[in-house]
Amino acid sequence: MSGSGGRPKRVLAVVNQKGGVGKSTTAVNLAAALGDLGERILLVDLDPQGNATSGFGLNKNQRDLCMYDALLGDTPIEAIIEPTQVENVFVAPATIQLAGAEIELVSAMSREGRLRVVLQPVLADFDFVIIDCPPSLGLLTINALTVANGLVVPVQCEYYALEGLSKLLDSVRLVKTHLNPTLDIFGAVMTMFDSRTRLSQQVVDEVRDFFEDRVFDTLIPRTVRIAEAPSHGKPVTVYDPSGRGADAYRRLAKEVLDRV
Length: 260
What we know:
Low-confidence stretches: 1-8
Number of strands: 8
Order of helices and strands: EHEHHEEHHEHEHEHEHHH
CATH superfamily: P-loop containing nucleotide triphosphate hydrolases
Structural class: alpha/beta
Largest sheet: 8 strands, mixed
């Protein structure tokens, strides 16, 4: 594998310890949209639920090898990376076996830096590495924060959107101080935006107060097509390429490139 090599490499962790905020959806569709723009992408599925894996049509129940084997076995990551239906996009898949990694990492040597070591041999092959984190601040997420140089934080346009975000930022500060001085918030992305409700706009305003200029301009709409796409094993850019959801993720991808 050889990447395009010109642009500085970015390792982006998609993280929010709240579930149901559009985290895996954002990881899958941002990866696909960046791939469509010619960027070479590795999507690392670090969530035992494996939604980013199945979001690209890979069967998470029929994998011989997954991120568990790379993190806690002696399997090189090159052996588990698979191509996807989107050109330029590759996935390092997850299975439910990864749930055990959280416990096993507790007693492992250099436990917070395992993912950094695992990814090192392939970092130069990709323009972006996107890590889909589990909805918790456990050791798998800490591993992602330790290797990432930017965080993408999906925030749902609903009540309690900001709940827990200060705890996330506390974790980011600790990791930045002790493990990874290059870590920073790359951007917050507003998901499930409904232009018909005043609440959605209020939440966007609150999040912009909280994150200031680090909120992406693109608002990801709440659409049926975005919700349906994972059940068909496709990013929305493939499932409904001319729809509002695909268009939003393409605009987000362009914003990401502008920020790099």
